[in-house]
Fold:
Amino acid sequence: MFSKVLVANRGEIAVRVMRACEELGVRTVAVYSEADKHGGHVRYADEAYNIGPARAADSYLDHESVIEAARKAGADAIHPGYGFLAENAAFARKVEDSEFKWIGPSADAMERLGEKTKARALMQDADVPVVPGTTEPAESAADVKAVADDYGYPVAIKAEGGGGGRGLKVVHSEAEVEDQFETAQREGEAYFDNASVYVEKYLEAPRHIEVQILADEHGNVRHLGERDCSLQRRHQKVIEEAPSPALDDDLRERIGEAARRGVRAADYTNAGTVEFLVEDGEFYFMEVNTRIQVEHTVTEEVTGLDVVKWQIRVAAGEELDFSQEDVEIDGHSMEFRINAEAPEKDFAPATGTLTTYDPPGGIGIRMDDAVRQGDEIGGDYDSMIAKLIVTGSDRTEVLARAERALAEFDIEGLRTVIPFHRLMLTDEEFRAGTHTTKYLDEVLDRDRIEAAVERWAPDAVNGDDDEEDVTERTFTVEVNGKRFEVSLEERGAPAIPLGGAGAASKPSGPRKRRDDGDDDQQVIEGDGESVTAEMQGTILSVDVEEGDEVEPGDTVCVLEAMKMENDVVAERGGTVTQVLVGEGDSVDMGDVLLVLE
Structure:
C-alpha cells in the first residue's frame, strides 16, 4: 500500500479521496490555487501546496505544477478525483513515466476510451450497441450535415474529451450547423484541451443509465449495478439514483454484461463508468468515463463497497476479493447535488458567504462536502458545493426520507438548488420514476421553480454577518510553496479581511484587467446604459465592437462561469459606445462589460 497520496483536485471529491486514504492508513497531500487558500480540502489534508493562480489552466490543469508538488511532498501516488486532469491521458502518461503511481486506468486505456470516436469503434467490435453516427472525428460542418442526411435532424455534436454535457451541442436544422460546430470545438478546447468533435443521431427522449465498473490488474472485471441519471438540466445531472426505476431484470442484466464486455476488450483497469442511453426498451453505448463519478456514492450505498478505496487498492496491485455473484443490490439510494445556483434565474451560478451551513443528519443520510459555515463560495470553479445522499429500504422510503432531510438542510448566504430538489420530491413524474433526460428542459413548468423558491427560500441570501466576534485568527504562511497555518487567539480584536493579516481591502466599483495584468478602475464615459456581468467569470468572446448597432436580445458577449457558457444579451437596443472587456478577461458580478446609447 502507498504511504502518501497527492490528490490532484479540490472540494468535496478531494476530501472524499482523502477520507478513503486515511482509512487505509495513507497520508494525504492537497494542492490548491490562490482562490482555494482556505478551501475545505486544504484544511483536511495532512499537508498542502500552492500550485498557482485561480485560473484552472494555471493551477489545477498545470501538469508540471501538480507533479512538482508531489515531488516536494514525497508522495508515491497521485489520485486525480474527477474533472480537471482526471481524464487527461497526457497527464496520466506523465505520471506513469515519473516516479509516481497513477491511481486510475492506464493512459493507453484512457486514450482508447476517453476519446469518444475510439470508444465507439471499440464497443462496436465488442458487440456493444452504439448510437448511429461517426466513428472518426468530424473535420468540418459538412461532416455534421452528412450524418443529418443519413439519419435526419436533430443530431448531436460532441467533444471527443467531453462529459457532463460540456462540449455537446444539439443541431435541429442545417442553419444551426456552423455555429454549433464551432461552439462544440471551442468548449472541447476550453474544458478538455481537445477541440476534436464527433457526430451522432440525437435520441429524442432517452433514459440515462450508467454502470459502475471495477477492474484489477489480474484480469478480474466486475460491475456494481446501474445508476439512473436521467434527471438532467442542460445535460448536467441533478439527481441520481440506484438502482434505476426504469429497468426490468432482463435489461439490467444485459446492460451490466455489455459494460463488462466493453471494458474487458479495452484492457481497462481501476474504476470506470460505462454510460448508456435507453429508449423503447433498447440500450446504446454513449461513453466511458475513465475516472470516479460524482454519483459513485449511490452505488456504494446499495452495494456496501467503497469504490474509492478499491481505486487505491487496485492501483497498489491488489486483486478484487469478490466475484460478480457476490455483488448484491440492497435497498435504494439517491444523490442530490447541492449547487450554488439560483433556480429562479435559470440556475445561474451564485456566489456569497455561507453565513449558515447546517446539513441534515439521521438514519440513511450521508453528506459529502468540503465546506463549513463562514466559507466564501466564489465563481472560479464548479458550482457544486456538497452532495446529499439519502438511502432507504426502497425508493418510497428514500423519497420520504429525502423530504425530511432537505427540509432540515439550512443554508443561508447564497442561493442553492435545495428549493428545486424539494419541488422534485412533490413532482408526480419524478416520483413515479417515468422522467427522461428531456423532462427538466422541455416539460417542467418554469413557474413551478419560481414558486418553489418563493415558498422554501425567500430569504436565502439574507444572512447576518455581524452575529459573531472574531476570537481566533488563522494566518497562512507559505514556505517554498508548502502551506503552514499559525493560529493566534485574541479577545475583543477587530475583524480582519478573509485574505489574512494586512490584506488590502478591495476598492469599490467595477474593475477590469489591463493587458499588463494590473487591476485598474473602469472609466465609464457618457451616460449610456451599462451592460453588466450577472456573475463572476471569464469572458470567452466579445461579439460586438464600438459603433455596432444591437437589438434587444442580441448576444453581446459570452461569459464562462463555473464551467458553463452564458450568453450576455442586451436588454434594449442601441449603439455600442464602449467595450470594456476582452476575450480572456476575468470579471466580477456587477462589472460593466459595455455601454449602449
